[in-house]
Amino acid sequence: MMKIRKAVVPVAGLGTRFLPATKAIPKEMLTVVDRPTIQYIVEEIVASGIKEVVLVTASGKSAIEDHFDYSYELEIFLAQKGKLDLLQEVRHISDLIEVVSVRQKEPLGLGHAVKVTEPVVCNEPFVVVLGDDMVDAKVPCVFQMLKVFEEFQQSVVAVQKVPLDEAHRYGIIEGKKVAEGVYKVERLIEKPAPGTSKSDLAIIGRYVLRPEIYGCLHKTLPGVGGEIQLTDALDCLRKEQGLYAYEFKGSRYDAGDKMGYLQATVNYALAHPDLGGKFKEYLKKLVADLDD
Ligand code: G1P
To answer: Measured in angstroms, how far is the CA atom of residue 114 from the centroid of ligand 1?
Structure first.
C-alpha cells in the first residue's frame, strides 16, 4: 500500500456563522489562544507524518496561504530588531508544509471541494481534514486513522458518538463492529431527518480516502441542501470497495460553532504551557464568584 503523502484541507467556506468577525478575514484565521485554527489543523497533519497540504480555497482566503508562506518584510524587520525567537517562530510555520492551492470556483458542497483536487492528488490515497473540527488528542487523530487504513486497507472515516437529538447535524454511519473502535460501514446518511436512523455514530471531519473516491464523486448528484455531499460519494465507495469507520481517541471541538469555539479556546488555554496555570486559577475564581 502506497504511503499517504497528501492532505486535502477545504477552506473555501464563507464562514457565515461567524459574521461579522469573518467579513474580511477567513474563519480559519480566527485565533484560538495564540494561533489561527488552521494552524492547529496543519500541526496535526504534520505530526501525523504528512507534509503536502492541498488547500481548497476561494476568493478572500489568501490570508491562509500567506500564513504558511515566508513573509520577507516581517522576517527582515524581526532580524534587524534582534527578535530572534519570533523570527524562528514565524519561519517555523512556513517550513511546516508545502502548500498547493486549488480554487473551488463555486460553493457546490464538500464533495465538490474534494472533487476539484483530483488533478493534484491523482491516483494515490490521501486524507481530508476539515478545519471546523479541532481534535485534541495524545496521538494525533489523523495518525490514528492512518493506522486503521494500514490495517484494513480500505477508506476510513472518523466517527464519534453524539446525542441522538443532534444526529441531524452530521453525516451518520451505521455498521458492524469489527475491532476495538472500528466498524465496517453498512449505511451512510447525510444529515438524517429525525427518526430515520437509530445510529449515534457521527462523521467527524477526518477521512482517509482511496483515490477511487474521485470516480464516485463524478457520479454523485446534488443531495441534502442541493450540495454535492462527500457522504453520498462515500456510500458509493462503500458499495464498490468497502468502507470503515473509526471511533478515534481524543476530544473534538466544533470550531465552526460559537459554543464549540469557546470550548476550544478554554481547553487549549488550560493546556497552554505558559498560560495554563494562571488561566486555571482565573477560572476557579470565576466559578467561585459565580456560585456566590
Ligand atoms: C460536514 C459533513 C458531515 C460531517 C461534518 C463534520 O458537514 O458533510 O457529514 O458530519 O462535516 O463536521 P458540515 O459541517 O459541513 O455541514
So the answer is: 13
Collapsed DSSP state (helix, strand, coil) of residue 282:
helix
Atom of ligand 1 nearest to the CA of 110: 8
The answer to whether residue 127 sits within a structural domain is yes
Candidate from 170, 204, 213, 238 with most ligand 1 atoms within 8 A of CB, to mutate: 170
pLDDT digits (tens, 9 = 90+) for 52-63: 999 999 999 999
Counting from 1 in the atom list of ligand 1, the atom nearest the Cα of 231 is 9
Closest ligand 1 atom to residue 256 Cα is 14
Q: Whose alpha carbon is nearest atom 14 of ligand 1?
A: 170
Closest residue by CA, ligand 1 atom 9: 171
Its domain, for residue 189, covers 6-256
Query: Is the residue at 103 inside a domain?
Result: yes
Render pLDDT for 241-279 as a digit per residue (tens, 0 to 9): 999 999 999 999 999 999 999 999 999 999 999 999 999
In this predicted model, what pLDDT tens digit does every residue of 83-92 receive, in sequence order? Answer: 999 999 899 8
| Number of independent structural domains in the chain | 1
Which contacts (CB < 8 Å, 24+ apart) does range 22-26 have? Answer: 24/60, 25/63, 26/60, 26/61, 26/63, 26/64
What are the pocket residues of ligand 1 if the criterion is a CB atom closer than 6 Å to any ligand atom? Answer: 110, 130, 132-133, 170-171, 190, 202-205, 229-231
Amino acid, single-letter form, for residue 106: E
**Domain of residue 21, CATH code:** 3.90.550.10
Ligand 1 atom nearest the C-alpha of 229 is: 8
Q: Does 27 reside within a domain?
A: yes
User: Is the residue at 267 inside a domain?
Assistant: no
